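FAQ: What does a ligand-bound record look like?

Like this one, built around threonylcarbamoyladenylate:
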Amino acid sequence: MSGSSMNELDQAAIAAAARALEAGALVAFPTETVYGLGADAESPAAVARIYEAKGRPNDHPVIVHLAPGADLSYWASAIPAEAHALVAAFWPGPLTLILKRASHIPDAVSGGQDTVGLRCPSHPVAVALLSAFKGGKGGVAAPSANKFGNVSPTTAQHVRDEFDGEVSSGPGPGNGNGNAPGNGARIAAVLDGGSSQVGIESTILDLSRLATHGPVLLRPGHISAKQIADVIGQMPGLPDQSAPRASGTLESHYAPKAPVALIAGAAVVETLAALQARQRRVAVIHYSAIALGGAQATLPGDPVGYAYGLYAALRAMDQTGADLILVEAPPQGEAWLGVNDRLRRAAFGSAGTIDKFLQA
Ligand code: TXA
Ligand code: MG
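The answer part, i.e. the structure of the complex:
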């Protein structure tokens, strides 16, 4: 398919980004969930640059992104039939599988554990990049393209905001020796693929201890436990204490700079008025029809639309300079699990803020 000049530009940018990755540099790219900050998963030095750029502890494992049709057995060992069934059902798509790792997976990728997280994203730019990188046979280690603990980016501009001054302005794919690209930038390129369609990170399912622990849902996401059960005939359980720690499962995560408080819809108007009476600047994220004054973001009342807009709304409300982001608590229920999980973590570090402000 020969495209417009726009498509040819995209192709050139994608090819340059693939060469940069091959040279050991970092490239930020869109996926259907959130933007990732990628490096060659088989180069410990390249993966180390991700940790440096994010300010992330280096014992946290990173997901390896694969091109469609990649050979699972190159990356994982002791692969259960359930993994193949889930790959057939959901890849490319927002599902990460934790499997026993193949022996050549660097410790920098696995966080020193005996497992590896694998995912095949569906975003066309991600697919094109992964297919161009090492001829489609490589793996790109990529956490979300944000500083550690911050809200994940769902647009290229979010990535540039997170890594202000750290993104290369020149086109160069790096200097070929695996060092950072020119002008001291940490990130060789940010590929722009528009807004991520799903908006929250992939569902993570641990199949590495299937025989003894069953399938374990480490992080809820767009692909639900029920959808997984429909494929493998077994409902995933929740992690126990001995399960490997995933940074996205730390209690406090995905947090904007302002404190976040979750509050029932019926209490939003009254709480807002009480806080404003104490001169607090409050930004509100809501989904039901509430008449409010001041900074606010209105999200759709369905879980798919809400997830799509959530991170952009958190960023936008943070940028108003509010002292507090008040979030109308979404409904409970399985379809809302991913959204409620991210909101709970965003609010975790700010428990008690409303009371503190009202008593001040
Ligand atoms: O949607 C996504 O998964 C995005 C896009 C870029 O693909 N990536 C993402 O990466 O959210 P990150 O690093 O922000 O979160 C990945 C989570 C972390 O909580 C990490 O600890 C966990 O996956 N993880 C990766 N490998 C693992 C492993 N071998 N065992 C347990 N958890 C693992
Ligand atoms: Mg993350």
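Follow-up question: can I read anything off the structure? Yes, for example: The pocket of magnesium ion (ligand 2) is lined by residues 143-144, 152, 248 (CB under 6 Å).
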